[in-house]
Design a protein that fits this description.
The chain is α+β, with helices and mostly antiparallel strands. The protein is built from eleven helices and 14 strands. Strands 3, 4, 5, 6 and 7 form a five-stranded antiparallel sheet that branches. It has three domains: about 1-105, no CATH class; about 110-175, 434 Repressor (Amino-terminal Domain) (Orthogonal Bundle); about 185-345, 3-Layer(aba) Sandwich (Trna Endonuclease, Chain: A, domain 1), CATH 3.40.1350. The longest helix has 18 residues, at about 85-100.
């Protein structure tokens, strides 16, 4: 339970790193409420208490109790702002997960609780753009078996439930950025070169490896930020170019879609833009399909254009042909810059290789 409270993600931050939210768990002596089921007693207050003064800002406090026999659990949440509907739903999920992990029998006892958890995790999966088959593969389950879990038809084992939460980004294990060996077989690379459309059939991890391998072929040193599907601030891998004064760091976000009609939306662009004015010289967003119009519009704004690099299926086809110095790779370069009022200088164009 300690690990759950530490690693649960609320508002894109782990609870252990979120000073605005404090959750305390206790074991009350007496049940708060009794019902006809002697094994399972619960109370969930529906209203938050009035703001309580705390320093210079109000604190919204709410208490829950959920009491399976023989374990008694109560939880108090204090948030330094008026909680949103999404935050309330997330806190309810924490309580249900705590209940699940405190129960030696490994069951919720109420199908309503099981279905509530399944709905929340299903919504989380859709928000991060994963398919049912993506998560099923991550859990080592068949699509049909995972489909029954997501419908709330069966109780997941505790280990499966934890991995499920990790897969959809509800839980993010604490970890330092790690280097993962880029693994893309020559056979698979050759297949993709012959049939780029096969990119859609890759798994999320295979697609990340593909992008990393292509960046390495361009001369970058690549580091992965962590486990696939974890919430890592929107950055999936780092690419470093060490070339004396020309050294720089790229933060890359990778979006894979099995359905070629699915486009990467503006939300992904906005999330990557949060890294502007950071250690990253450029923010790279790669998708195997295309971008929505509003995503392209945001990326094309003058204030965003120097930082963002959006690359879609047609760019990946060019990467598969090893055309890394194609003029299209420099399309974000300005034609000229203004050094002083009325003084405009043309920017030297890169010398393109025609090999």
């Amino acid at each position: 339970m300690e690990r759950l409270l530490r690693d649960f993600v609320l508002n894109d931050r782990r609870l252990s790193e979120n000073d605005d939210v404090v959750i305390s768990v206790g074991h009350p002596i007496e049940p708060h409420y009794c019902c006809s089921n002697p094994r399972y007693v619960r109370r969930m207050d529906e209203l938050w208490a009035k703001p309580l003064p705390s320093g210079n800002r109000p604190v919204y406090s709410r208490g829950w109790s959920i009491t399976p026999i023989p374990t008694l659990i109560s939880m108090e949440v204090r948030i330094g702002h008026e909680p949103t509907r999404e935050e309330i739903a997330a806190v309810r999920l924490i309580l249900l997960l705590l209940d699940r992990y405190s129960d030696a029998d490994g069951g919720w006892g109420h199908s309503v609780a099981l279905q509530e958890v399944a709905r929340f995790l299903s919504s989380a999966r859709e928000q991060v753009g994963l398919t049912v088959s993506d998560v099923a593969e991550h859990l080592g389950l068949t699509t049909d078996t995972f489909g029954r879990l997501e419908e709330g038809a069966v109780h997941p084992h505790k280990r499966v439930l934890y991995k499920w939460c990790v897969a959809v980004g509800v839980i993010c294990r604490a970890q330092k950025p790690l280097v993962r060996v880029v693994s893309l077989s020559p056979y698979l690379l050759e297949l993709l070169k012959k049939s780029p459309e096969e990119l859609r059939n890759l798994s999320a991890e295979q697609f990340e490896n593909f992008v990393a391998e292509r960046l390495q072929s361009m001369g970058y040193d690549v580091t992965f930020t962590g486990a696939i599907h974890s919430r890592d601030g929107g950055i999936d891998l780092l690419a470093a170019r060490r070339a004396g004064l020309g050294s720089y760091l790229i933060g890359a976000q990778i979006k894979h879609h099995h359905n070629t009609a699915t486009k990467t939306s503006r939300d992904s662009v906005d999330r990557l833009l949060s890294w502007r004015n950071s250690s990253f010289k450029f923010g790279l967003l790669v998708t195997n399909t295309a971008f929505t119009r509003d995503a392209m519009w945001v990326a094309g704004l003058e204030v965003n254009r120097p930082f963002l690099r959006l690359r879609d299926f047609f760019d990946l086809k060019r990467w598969l042909e090893d055309r890394f110095n194609d003029p299209m790779e420099f399309r974000e370069f300005p034609d000229e810059i203004e050094l002083a009022p009325g003084v405009r200088i043309k920017v030297p164009r890169p010398r393109f290789s025609r090999e």
